[in-house]
Amino acid sequence: MANGISFDARPTARRRAGPETVRTRQSFGTIWRQHWQLYAMLLPAAVLLILFRFYPLWGVSLAFIDWEPMKGVLGSAFVGLDVYRRIFSTPDMGLIIRNTVVIAVGKIILVQSAGLAFALIIHQLGWSFFRRISQTLTTLPYFLSWIIVGGIMLQILPTRGVLNMVLREIGLGPVRFLTSPEVFPWTLIWSEVWKNFGFAAVIYLAALVGINPELYEAAAVDGAGRGARLLHVTLPGIAPTIVLMACLNLGNVLEAGFEQVLVLQNPAVYSTGDILDTYVYRAGILSAQYSLATAVGLLKSVVGFVMVCLSYWLADRLANYRVF
Amino acid sequence: MIRENRLPDRLVTAILYLTALAMSLLCLIPFLHVVSVSLSSRTAVMQMQVNIWPVGLNFDNYRFLTREAQVVQSTAISVGRVLIGVSLNLLITILTAYPLSRDSIRLPGRNLFKVLLLFGMLFHGGLIPTFLSMRYLGLYDNLAVLVMPPALNVFFIILMMNFFRAIPIEMTEAATIDGASHFDILTRIYLPVSLPSLATVALFSAVFHWNSWFDGLLYLRKVIYWPLQTYAYARVVQRQLESRASGGTELNPLFLQQLSPEGLVAAFIVLVALPIMLVYPFLQRYFLQGLTLGAVKG
Questions:
Q1: Domain count of chain B?
Q2: pTM score, two decimals?
């Protein structure tokens, strides 16, 4: 090739290589002269990556030392796993991990189920104007911050709020959505469902639209009713998407929703509503227990990282999903 | 769609419509309630007469808020944050996505870079190490903290890479033969054909920057630096009635006594949500397009 641009011909390359593929390897000097601009383009991202993602990793060492700010990291005494021993000797930690997992898993299951159900319903409706308005209303909350959605919840949910007023009208006693330790996790889960089920439905709906309409017609000709078509055409058609979402959500089992919990929680519900992230925030930022908070945060980072890797691996194996 | 005319089927259809209607109304009613509270009179709010329609319609809450110096200041910070933040986001996203998407060019180190980028996205040092590092980098109480760290967004880069990969290689071949540099190809060929995808990324970036509040709370001690959403945390969640820092409003302090705390908080919520609620119905297609691409195609 006269212009000297080489084409990668490795079988792993996902893009089809052109017919004029050159298989000879060039020296790095040649590549640099031709494509130095590509490296230049990557430079700003590399700087940001190092400054804001890799540089902070030094701080992980705080979990293993008795940090004294004046002495710095190297001057402080190394204490090994003492901090972790201290953390797990209190009953708090088990409770907080349990809260985190219960809330996160509850959210995943209910948000995905509600989204799937809504997508299946909407998909069956013929009136497209209604479908569009309905989607506008249900997806809007996803794009609002937890300050706004949490603020709305704090307006509506108190015992003196409008929801309890309605509940009293129909004879149900006041429910302490925000202050009862038994109810609060459900408040978190259902407000998450309220905010995000429309978004979950968008993904399932995209998969439903992709199902070949001829399959439905063929099934109808064969005498399949609504239920039979749902069971034998629709569900097999979106099964890959369901599997994919289940896999990807596996990476979220420790993500109980920091911003939401910070907005909605109060000391009365710490026993069931305190999660790893809010604990780290209070211990670290508000009470300056850096070693303790770093150790808890690191635990979450490592387990979370392993879960996300596992989820991507499963998504690749089961649903052919690749991040890059 | 297959038409069903037997009675049980029509009944099922009716139930489906009603369920969808109920779920949609469930999303709408809380907004209606909050908007109504913000527009109702003090007595109506205090006596809990407001449901989903204003009682004693007036705009006093909004008149009070829009004349408060800190609300104006925070709005300016938020608007500035969105403008600068989106520009930086787009710049970094375009520059990074282009080299990573040109799979046909052998570029030593590209796979390593991708792995590092992915690792950086998935593994965080945690809240405390990040917080201390930002202090050491001089970003504490520095407005740059709102736009610099989020400038590198791997989700946007992956989205953009997928758009770039779909551009046929034939389009660049002629330019390459004519001696065009990579910057030429990027600005003259790639960018003009990817305007819709750039719009999607810009939209998502704008929503992200408008909605972010925790970074302001964490890194900015001076209240005058706070974006609107961070200030909303103090006003809506911690229920502080008036600004702590920059001295109140130009209105008579007696005016505050004519307002209800609930109504004022409701008005604040509506004010902060308004930009997104106004543009959303018109740009819904771009919003949802980005979601499906990001979530399913990755």
A1: 2
A2: 0.88
